[in-house]
Design goal:
Layout lengths: L1 H19 L3 E9 L2 E9 L2 E9 L14 H17 L7 E9 L5 E4 L4
Length: about 110
Amino acid sequence: MKKLALGKAGELVASQYLQNLGHTVLFSNYRKKFGEIDIISLENHILHCSEVKTWNEANGFFPMECLHATKRAKMRKVYLYLLQEIPAFFHLTPSFNLIHITEKKEVRFYSSIF
């Protein structure tokens, strides 16, 4: 239960961070049976699909390790489903991102990483 609460708190921090950057958050926890995108936001004709990780760096966290090939494939599949569901998004440029929330609630935003 503690891990779930930590993840939700991190997603809230990430949403606020994106809004401060000028993003409009469209979806939180956009889920399909085959995967999920934590936050989908829009900014300057870019549709940002973000994975949020709230992690203690003392545990040896390396951000790119969370976005292994399987996770990237699932995110792409969910994104393609979103385009089928909302065709108006088709003209937007996609950006797949990682948002790392540290134990001090610092935000590290890795944009367009795949």
